[in-house]
Amino acid sequence: MGIRRRLVAIAVGVMVGPGLGRAQPGATPAPAPTASTPTIELHGIIGGSLYGQDAALGPFAGGGAWFVTGVPARDPWSLGGDVRQTRLNLAAVGPPVAGGVTPRGVLELDLFGGPGPGGYGDVSVVPRLRLAYAELRAGRSTLQVGQNTSLVLALVPVTVGHAAYPLSIAAGTIGWRYPGVFALHAVPLGGRRGTLELGVMIARPAWQNPAAAPASDALVSQDAMGIGLGEASGLPQVEVRLKLTRPGLDAFVAGHVHRVDRTGTGATTGPQIDLTVRAAVAGAKLVAGRVTVAGAGYVGQNLAPLLGGLLQFQGPTRGDVREWGGWAQAVVAVGPRTSLGALAGTARLRSSDAAAAELARRHNTVVSALARYQLGGYAVGLEVTRWRTARATDAGVVTLTGDQLMASAMYTF
Q: Mean pLDDT of all residues in the chain?
């Protein structure tokens, strides 16, 4: 019995009761799957974490921590729990059509959509859309239309409790998810030389999410017509990536560019300054025996739409904010199921640009240690992490320090 038929049988059993849910004598049997029936694939992550931290970490506590937002003067430690990185990925793979082209549809959700309504919303969290795209695959070429991950986000650190928001976000990693068209083509290099893949993304342009700013805050996130200032440019996000995959080595280089029209639609002049978002990214992962070393770095400007800029959007009359960042991680397998890892990463805005734009956060650094035990897809991990965030105040730039101890258990399938 296929997965779809099993799901239908379970649903019927729940709705009508265990007796009626079974086939009755003389009932017409369900039709057998045919060659045109899609194959259903279900993947994901399920689990949770308990954590203690001695500072206010943002933009979310627990598995969504990127930087320090405040430090209590006394009695700093708090204890929390997190299941929000739980993730379900549903894919429907159809039979080949049109001479061997394989269609596929992917939908992925996690639980980082915020708390639910009511007094107990913290344990009734809202699902969040991550991916939703239709795919056609023909030989070594793939075309995806819908929402997918930016091509510049090609490598993230190993973790157990920070899968939804990697620890290198705001500390060396940029990239996000947007609706668009994604084209990939792989070229075999022969033998152990591996495969070279070229990727191109044409996606919806972006600036600050219009819902993140009040409507009265003109030309910060949207124009008078309610159109986002990225979309107002009339030009798409464009990304190009070249990725090499060979035994023991993955490496990539990627670039991103798009335009932001901060006068909005219906105006060509004004005090607002148009911006260009641009970035260059490179990274690699090397596996040598029991040791895996990975890292990536970037340079660019106006990168808040890609989770850069330490998640800060400059005001409409402020100019470019340039920055750079990078991260590195080493993981050593010390036994058949046990591994130890260490991570360091940083993101740094150019001081003069950040000061001119009156941005509060100036640079951020993360260091973390990981101990992981795996039984197949089941993993238990202990992560100790420290963030150091430089923040501008009336008294000058001060450095805030925050620590987190997280124990997690996850099943990946």
A: 90
